[in-house]
Design a protein that fits this description.
The complex is a heterodimer of chains A (about 240) and B (about 280). By secondary structure, chain A is mostly helical. Chain A has a single domain, classed as Methane Monooxygenase Hydroxylase, Chain G, domain 1 (Up-down Bundle). In chain A, helix 1 runs antiparallel to helix 4, helix 2 packs antiparallel against helix 3 and helix 3 packs antiparallel against helix 6. Chain A starts with 7 loop residues before the first helix and ends in a 23-residue tail after the last helix. Chain B has about 280 residues and is of the alpha/beta class. Chain B has a single domain, classed as Rossmann fold. Helix content of chain B is about 35%, strand content about 25%. In chain B, the strands form 2 sheets. Chain B has a 6-stranded mixed beta sheet, with helices on both faces. A 4-stranded antiparallel beta sheet of chain B has the order 2-1-4-5, with helices on one face. In chain B, a hairpin with a 2-residue loop joins strand 4 and strand 5. Chain B is globular. Classes of the chains: A mainly alpha (about 240), B alpha/beta (about 280). At the A-B interface, helix 3 and helix 5 of A face helix 1, helix 9, helix 10 and helix 11 of B.
């Protein structure tokens, strides 16, 4: 519905809400990029800066929560407006969780920088690229209310899950080969898991966008390419 | 994304609620292709709707959309407008209310009406209630009339407030009480359907809340159709909502569906406060 509300201040309040979300999304994208870069470049200083930036994301989530309460109280939104306001609250929650995962990746980057380089670390920037694209696309999809783009992100989660699964198996093999790899490999396992979780939140956001625009939930089996919960790597023995 | 992937993703229906859908109730008033002309003006265009028994159906829409015109078709109030011409069919419990053999006075006992401004007769509270039952011969003894008065006033949630002053003029009550008196007067003749034309627009929020509570209680025994400009009120009191625009019925659905996910862009535009 491209038409504006008769009461212009109502539009201003909704625009403020989506504006806050856009800013929050931008910050989370930057935090994620910093965290991945810190792992890849073994840059502890960048990692520390990235961890500190997370505070601003939390503040924005609170501001969005307050704005949602305000619009609900003053405007009693219905139909698409109601779905937008409630959806914004959900998206803010998903972004906040994503930022937390990015922060955790950055923290582990500090530890990883002090350990010897492990070959599987090269998979992290590749996973990072996929999840950053997912996050960027889903935020663009929200800004443009583009359901097809959101659904494309939703489908892409499978690719990320597969990358995570394959890295998982590789790291377990590394650990079995040489116990000195265990510390670094464990950190990398968590880094990979955190990135994979951010993909899940991007997928949640895609579902929320579908609901905001269409009014119906995006249903069907979630794309799942990750079997690590059931994975074992045989000792060959 | 290719077509196959799109195909794999189908929008789900909302989970079935524990309550049966309001759409499942029996049809009380079946309207088909109802048209109203006022002189040369085509005020209502081909309206078809099933009004469900013991449900509150709200008619919403901008001024001049035809919702009040349609409401007034349901008890032939438009007969009183010389230039009005009504075509189409309206069946009340299967009976055509525009059948020439129908007694309009009887019809209006079966289909009662409550108006925008409370309009009690300039008589006592008691006389306001017994007027209808008396002309319809529903009671003969004082005890029978007393019983109707108490039952109607209780039904309209007014008894406790007025039981000690039944002989005082109805016009001496507060606005909200007067409106509940008019509702008591409407239910005194045991109608099947009650039409309400903006029944709360002259009331303050507290009196409105009382009347809305009452409407919800009346649903136990009556079929109610309410015209309202207050969309929150339609959302609060009705189970079904019909949106009218420029003389046509645009969309009719469960109220929860209309206010969360209307199908028509015009409905969306109206209820969200945009230019439709």
């Amino acid at each position: 519905m491209a038409n504006d509300h008769i009461v212009r201040s109502y539009d201003e309040e909704l625009n403020r809400l989506t504006g806050l979300l856009a800013r929050m999304g931008g910050l989370v994208e930057a935090e994620l990029a910093g965290a991945i870069q810190a792992v890849a470049a073994r840059d502890a200083e960048l990692a520390t800066r990235t961890v500190r930036a997370d505070i601003r994301v939390d503040e924005l989530e609170r501001e969005i929560g307050e704005q949602v309460v305000r619009v609900m109280a003053l405007r009693q939104p219905v139909a698409m407006d109601l779905r937008l306001v409630l959806g914004s609250l959900r998206i803010a929650g998903d972004l906040e969780r994503s930022a937390d995962y990015a922060k955790n990746v950055a923290k582990r980057a500090v530890a990883l920088a002090q350990l010897p380089i492990l070959r599987p670390v090269h998979a992290i920037p590749r996973m990072g690229t996929v999840v950053r694209e997912m996050l960027k696309d889903v935020l663009d999809a929200f800004a443009a209310r583009d359901v097809a783009k959101a659904v494309a992100v939703w489908n892409r989660d499978e690719e990320l899950d597969e990358m995570h699964g394959s890295l998982f198996r590789e790291l377990v093999t590394y650990m079995m080969e040489d116990p000195r790899n265990i510390t670094g490999s464990t950190h990398l396992l968590f880094v990979a898991k955190n990135i994979e979780r951010i993909g899940d939140h991007a997928t949640n956001i895609a579902e929320t966008i579908h609901y905001i625009v269409k009014g119906t939930p995006l249903s069907g089996e979630r794309p799942k390419g990750d079997g690590t919960s059931f994975s074992t790597v045989g000792a060959g023995g | 994304m290719d077509a196959k992937q799109m195909d794999a993703i189908k929008p789900a229906q909302f989970p079935a609620s524990a309550d049966a859908s309001p759409a499942k109730m029996a049809v009380k008033v079946a309207c088909r292709d109802v048209n109203v002309h006022y002189g040369t003006k085509h005020a209502l265009k081909g309206v078809g709707i099933d009004i469900r028994e013991r449900q509150v159906t709200a008619f919403i829409g901008p001024s001049g959309c035809g919702k009040s015109t349609f409401l007034r078709c349901l008890n032939r109030m438009n007969d009183t407008v010389a230039s009005a011409r009504v075509t189409g069919s309206i069946l009340l419990g299967g009976q055509d209310i525009y059948d020439p053999k129908i007694d309009v006075v009887q019809l209006r006992a079966r289909v009662g009406m409550v108006f925008q401004k409370p309009n009690p007769f300039p008589k006592s509270i008691y006389e306001n209630i017994v007027y209808g039952p008396r002309i319809h011969g529903l009671a003969s003894t004082k005890a029978e009339f007393d019983e109707i008065v108490e039952r109607s006033l209780r039904g309209a949630a007014l008894w406790d407030e007025v039981k000690d002053r039944l002989n005082e003029p109805g016009t001496g009550l507060s606005g909200g009480q007067q409106q509940r008196l008019c509702i008591a007067r409407a239910i005194a003749v045991s109608p099947e359907v009650i039409l309400m034309d903006e029944p709360c627009s002259a009331l303050d929020p507290i009196a409105t809340a009382h009347v809305e509570t009452l409407i919800d209680e009346l649903r136990e025994n009556f079929t109610i159709v309410i015209v309202t400009h207050n969309m929150q009120q339609a959302a609060r009191v009705s189970q079904r909502t019909a949106f009218f625009h420029l003389g046509t019925l645009v969309e009719e659905d469960d109220t929860a569906a209309i206010f969360t996910n209307p199908r028509d862009e015009r409905t969306q535009g109206y209820i969200t406060g945009r230019y439709g």
